[in-house]
């Protein structure tokens, strides 16, 4: 966890330096170093001791010195100095939509705003508008932004929480007092956003376990009692540990996986059968509970097929389980390729060849390279000439590959009026076209829907990327009526994306379910900008499973021939004039 702790110090320093107005290179260096640390498989202390730290990409002398200092003293002096200049709460200001580091610095310096509460007060008192360049409208926007932030509360992306929960799980399993530790709760149900982590821990010596939590650096705060321990991880994440004996593990795991709604239905069903369900097992007529050997046994004794955690939401899963009609859900291994990745031709951080290597290493059979189009200038969108050059490069690369195919693709911008950022003659040459909105996201619902309608009039648009445009914790979804988009996609035979990037998770499971029910195909993609990002796919698979999707409904679960056949057929159908 030292790795993650130093990474979060570096990230905080990057943000503070940005507020301070330091050079972008310095800021970026800290962010890159943080990323390196987050992906470092070895223990930071070992890497420092062996001198390997100096060979980490991006670690110059100054950063190496800070890593050494951190391992030796547990802190970084330069970090402390920054915190003396700006309270850490100033960084909360950056979470307000539209509020950048420049403005945060001025708010702090000129108005003494040190956090969200101060900011809200200053906006309500009309003090914000005294800043040069600010007016009543900006004040209103900031208030709305604060409110949106508060509404989201403390929910975080599963992509942020799950790796930490797994780290805790691994740490627990190394303790002599622990027989077994398993992640439960909404994380096990792959809920897109979660408040905290729940783990079920098998131990026969709870006191010893509690004592070693802090000693082993697994938690910075430990509270609670005999069978339930609340801990705060070094990263600040809260986790609830349920301590159980081995004999109660299956029923406890089921109990602490939830959801509440699922359990209400299950208990109701049990009651009608003269049974009662608890974290200790299944009891008849108020007797002592029988322990269960597995979750399967619990469902079996209630006359039900096993309900996968992702479907335990209190919808219609019990009826389906009773009829043996639960869907066979998509699995990670069903996926044959990723159909939305970037390379360093636009804003990706790895070469085309590196991305292909990474995809092959993950057992994929194809990969669609979808760099940005010219309108996304900050992301180095490809001019038509550059795209043609890339097509040629990919064709050459394909001739050297066996059992693997790189698809020439694009993430083509849908411009403000709904036209596409590349001409038809160019789109026609591509194997796979994802069309996405990256600008003017504040348009009203009607305009946005018309924009998608116009884009989907093109027969070449195979999929719509990150359809609602939300960025978790940073930007709300666009006002586009998703039902309307689903209807358009159904009519035009285009797929909708489940973007698995932890900051997007878009479509979410609720909308993915609606889309599938309307007969729309989904595509689970990572939008990877780095080889490691290909592993985000598990979050997309989680969403697909929560939506009840099986391989037949997800186009990248199909082999290359089937996929290309589908694309050809859908483009042909989309080119036919609509019936009069
Ligand atoms: Zn995009
Ligand atoms: Zn993208």
From TrEMBL:
Say what the protein does: Repair polymerase that plays a key role in base-excision repair. During this process, the damaged base is excised by specific DNA glycosylases, the DNA backbone is nicked at the abasic site by an apurinic/apyrimidic (AP) endonuclease, and POLB removes 5'-deoxyribose-phosphate from the preincised AP site acting as a 5'-deoxyribose-phosphate lyase (5'-dRP lyase); through its DNA polymerase activity, it adds one nucleotide to the 3' end of the arising single-nucleotide gap.
The cross-references to CDD domains, in alphabetical order and at most eight, read: NT_POLXc, PHP_PolX
One Pfam match: HHH_8
Q: Which EC number applies?
A: 2.7.7.7, 4.2.99.18
Please give the InterPro entries that the UniProt record associates with this protein: DNA-dir_DNA_pol_X (IPR002054), DNA_pol_lamdba_lyase_dom_sf (IPR027421), DNA_Pol_thumb_sf (IPR037160), DNA_pol_X_beta-like (IPR002008), HHH_MUS81 (IPR010996), Hlx-hairpin-Hlx_DNA-bd_motif (IPR003583), NT_sf (IPR043519), PHP_dom (IPR004013)
**GO molecular function (one):** class I DNA-(apurinic or apyrimidinic site) endonuclease activity
Q: Name one GO biological process term.
A: DNA repair
Q: Which UniProt keywords apply?
A: DNA damage, DNA repair, DNA replication, DNA synthesis, DNA-directed DNA polymerase, Methylation, Nucleotidyltransferase, Sodium, Transferase, Ubl conjugation
User: Record keywords: Transferase included?
Assistant: yes
Q: In its UniProt entry, what is this protein called?
A: DNA polymerase beta
Q: Where is the Polymerase/histidinol phosphatase N-terminal domain?
A: 337-416
Report domain DNA-directed DNA polymerase X positions: 1-313
């Amino acid at each position: 966890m030292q790795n993650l702790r130093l990474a979060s110090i570096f990230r905080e320093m990057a943000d503070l330096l940005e507020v301070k107005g330091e050079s972008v290179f310095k800021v970026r260096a800290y962010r890159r170093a943080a990323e390196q640390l987050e992906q470092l498989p070895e223990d930071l202390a070992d890497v420092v001791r062996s001198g390997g730290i100096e060979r980490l990409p991006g670690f110059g002398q100054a950063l190496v010195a800070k890593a050494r200092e951190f391992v030796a003293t547990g802190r970084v002096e330069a970090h402390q100095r920054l915190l003396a200049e700006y309270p850490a709460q100033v960084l909360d200001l950056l979470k307000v939509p539209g509020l950048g580091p420049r403005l945060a610095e001025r708010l702090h310096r000129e108005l003494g705003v040190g956090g969200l509460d101060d900011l809200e007060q200053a906006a309500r008192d009309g003090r914000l508008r005294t800043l040069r360049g600010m007016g009543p409208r900006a004040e209103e926007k900031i208030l709305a932004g604060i409110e949106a932030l508060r509404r989201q509360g403390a929910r975080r992306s599963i992509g942020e929480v799950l790796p930490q929960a797994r780290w805790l799980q691994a740490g627990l399993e190394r303790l002599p007092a622990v027989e077994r530790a398993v992640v439960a709760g909404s994380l096990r149900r792959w809920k897109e956003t979660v408040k905290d982590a729940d783990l079920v821990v098998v131990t026969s010596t709870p006191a010893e376990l509690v004592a070693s939590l802090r000693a082993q650096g697994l938690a910075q705060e430990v509270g609670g009692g005999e069978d339930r321990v609340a801990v705060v991880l070094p990263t600040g994440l809260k986790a609830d540990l349920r301590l159980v004996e081995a004999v109660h593990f299956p029923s406890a795991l089921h109990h602490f996986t939830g959801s509440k709604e699922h359990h209400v239905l299950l208990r109701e069903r049990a009651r009608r059968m003269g049974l009662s369900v608890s974290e200790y097992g299944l009891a008849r007529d108020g007797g002592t509970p029988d322990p269960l050997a597995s979750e399967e046994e619990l469902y079996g004794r209630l006359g039900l097929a096993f309900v996968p955690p992702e479907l335990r939401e209190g919808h219609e899963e019990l009826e389906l389980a009773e009829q043996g009609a639960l869907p066979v859900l998509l699995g990670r291994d069903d996926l044959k390729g990723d159909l939305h990745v970037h390379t360093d031709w636009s804003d990706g951080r790895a070469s085309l060849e590196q991305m292909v290597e990474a995809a092959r290493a993950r057992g994929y059979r194809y990969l669609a390279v979808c760099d940005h189009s010219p309108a996304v200038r900050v992301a180095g969108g490809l001019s038509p000439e550059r795209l043609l050059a890339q097509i040629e490069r990919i064709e050459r690369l394909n001739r050297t590959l066996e059992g693997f195919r790189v698809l020439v693709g694009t993430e083509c911008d849908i411009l403000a009026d709904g036209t596409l950022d590349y001409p038809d003659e160019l789109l026609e040459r591509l194997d796979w076209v994802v069309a996405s909105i990256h600008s003017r996201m504040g348009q009203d619902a009607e305009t946005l829907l018309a924009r998608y309608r116009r884009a989907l009039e093109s027969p070449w648009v195979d999929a719509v990327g990150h359809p609602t445009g939300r960025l978790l914790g940073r930007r709300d979804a666009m006002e586009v009526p998703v039902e309307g988009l689903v209807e358009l996609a159904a009519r035009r035979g285009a797929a909708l994306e489940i973007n698995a990037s932890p900051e997007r998770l878009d479509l979410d499971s609720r909308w993915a379910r609606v889309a599938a029910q309307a007969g729309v195909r989904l595509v689970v993609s990572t939008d990877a900008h780095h080889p490691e990002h290909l592993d985000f796919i598990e979050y997309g698979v989680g969403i697909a499973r929560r939506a009840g999707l099986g391989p037949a409904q997800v186009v990248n679960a199909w082999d290359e021939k089937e996929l290309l056949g589908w694309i050809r057929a859908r483009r042909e159908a989309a080119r036919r004039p609509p019936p009069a």
